[in-house]
C-alpha cells in the first residue's frame, strides 16, 4: 500500500548513513544527517573547503549532527575530524560527542574559542569533568580531534595529545557526531570513521594512537602548548569562516562508520541512489516472503504456482508508491528507483547466469521461475501500472511492444484478483478501500527484529535503517487481520536465502542475500569488483521519466443552489474513507463522502452548474440507458487500474475533444447512484490529469429522486 511505500521513502530519504553529495567531501558518513538534524537559527554551507555551521544570534544554542554507529567492533574504531571555531564568545566550542539518547548519556571532547580543550561526560543531569587543557587548541585550521574506541571504552585525543579515557559511560557505543555550541562560525572537514586499524607499512607511529585501557577513567596531566601551525587566526574579529584550510589528512580505508566485515557498495556516494538500491532489494525479497505469509496465515487460495503468485503480489506492492506520488521530489525519485532495482536484480541475475553458460531449462525442477522470466513478470506488472515511469526501463531491456501491450491487462487482472482475495481479511481504510473488516477489527501484529550483524551491510540495516523499516512493516499488521503474530527477523544466516516458516509464522531475512545482490548490482553498474573497487565511470539504472505530482487534499462539497433538500442524503457517511486508489471492478459498493483531486457535488450543486456554465461537460460512467439528458456516456472512464496507466492519455484526449480543446472546462462524472464506484474512479482519473473534476455522488438515482428529467422523459416529450 502507498502508506507502506511513499511514507517509508519519506522517512528514509535522509536516514541512510551514506552522505548527501553536497557535504560528502567534508563530512563523509556524517553528511546525511545535515538535512534532517539542522536546528532553527543555524545554517549549513560549504565555504573555502570547510563544512560550516553558523549561528549568528542564538546564544547558548547547541547544534549536533549524529550518526548511529552502535558498539565498536572488537578490532576498534577511530573517529577523526579537522575542526575550527571562530567566535567572540570565549566559551563557544566545537567538538566530537558520543551520545546515548535512550539513556540520556553523553561524553564530549571540545575545543573552545579561548583555545581550551575540555572533556566531560553527562549522565542525566549529572556532569563529570574529566579534563581541561588550556591553550592546546591552535584555532588556525589545523586542530584535529580523534576518538579511539573499543567495545565499552573510548580515548579522546586532540592534536596528538591524549586528553582522557572513558570506560564507564553508556554514551560509548551509541551515536557519534559533531556538537557546536553558542554564537559563531564553526568549521568541520575530513570527518571519517575507520574500523580498519591495521598499521600501514612504513607509517610513522603517532602519539596517542593506541587503544584505551579497558578499565578506569584517567586524565593525563596537561602538557605545554605545542608549536603553532597554519596561518594564525584567533577568536576575535567577528564570525567569518576560515579563509584557508590546510591539506586534508590521508583518507581512511573505510569511512563508512559501519562495523563488520565484507563489502559495502556506496554507488558513488549518492544518498538517494544508495537507499533506492538497498530498499529496492529488501522490499522485493520481503514482499515476496510476506506474500507467502498471507497465503499461509490467511489460508488463501492459490490456483497457480505459489512462487509466481507471490512474485506478482510483491510487484503490486512495489509499483504502488510510484502510482501515487508525494509532493517531495526526492521521495518520488527514491520510490521509482527502488521499484526499478527491485525488478532489475532479477534481470541482472539472469544475465549473469547466461554469461556463465546457464540456461532457463537448467533448473527446471526448481519451484521458482527462472530469473529472466521473473523479471519479465515483475516489470510487466510495474509497466502496466505506470507505463510513463517504466518506459525507459522497458526500452533499455528490450521489452517488446506486443508484451507491453498486454501489461495493462495483466496489471489490472492481478491487482483486481489480489485485492478481491484479501478484502475479507483487510481493514477498511484510506489505502485499503476494498477492506471488508472494520477499521478497529482485532488481530495479531507483525513484529520486526533486526539483529546485529558481522557484516557492514547487515549493520547498515540494523543501525541505520531498522527503525523506519520496522515501523512500515508493522503497518501490515494494521492493514490485514492476522490470526497470530507474524515475526520478521533480519539476521546473519550463513547462507543466501530468505524464507517464510508456516509452522512458526515467521519470516527470516538474511543479510547475506541482500549483500550478495547489492554487490552484483554495483559490479554491473559501477564497475566495482566484489562491490568495493570503484571504476572511473559508474553507470546507473535507466533514468525514469518525470511524473506529475497531483495534490491529494480532500475538497468538500459546496452548498446547494436553490434546490429543496434531496430525498437521498447525498453526503451520508457510508463508512468508506476517501482514497487515491481506484476501486476495483465490478465497482459496486458503498462510496466515500469525500474525494481526492476532485470536488463532490450534490444534485443542487449540479443543477446550478448546468444553469450557469455553458461549457460544462457531464460524463456518465454507469452504462445505463436512462440517464441525465446532456451527459456523454463513457463507462470506460471509471475503469480500475491506476491513474498512471495507458487509459489516462486516452481519457485526456477524449475529454479535450468534448471540451472543445478547453482545458479550463469543468467536468462532472455521474454514476448509477451512491453505490456506483465507477464515477468516483473517473473523477479521480480526471483530477489526476489536471482537469477541474467534479463527482456527482448521488448519480442517476439522486437525479431521478429529485424529480428531474432523464433521457427517457425527454424522448416521451418528443
UniProtKB/TrEMBL annotation:
Keyword Transmembrane on entry: no
Pfam name, any one: DUF4344
Name by which UniProt lists this protein: Rhodanese domain-containing protein
Coiled coil: none
Biased composition (Low complexity): 215-226, 542-561
Cleavable signal peptide: 1-21
Native species: Achromobacter kerstersii
Gly residues bias (residue ranges): 227-239
UniProt cross-references to InterPro entries, sorted A to Z: DUF4344 (IPR025644), Rhodanese-like_dom (IPR001763), Rhodanese-like_dom_sf (IPR036873)
Transmembrane segments: none
Region of interest (Disordered), ranges: 198-263, 533-571
Domain Rhodanese: 648-712
Keywords: Signal
Taxon lineage: Bacteria, Pseudomonadati, Pseudomonadota, Betaproteobacteria, Burkholderiales
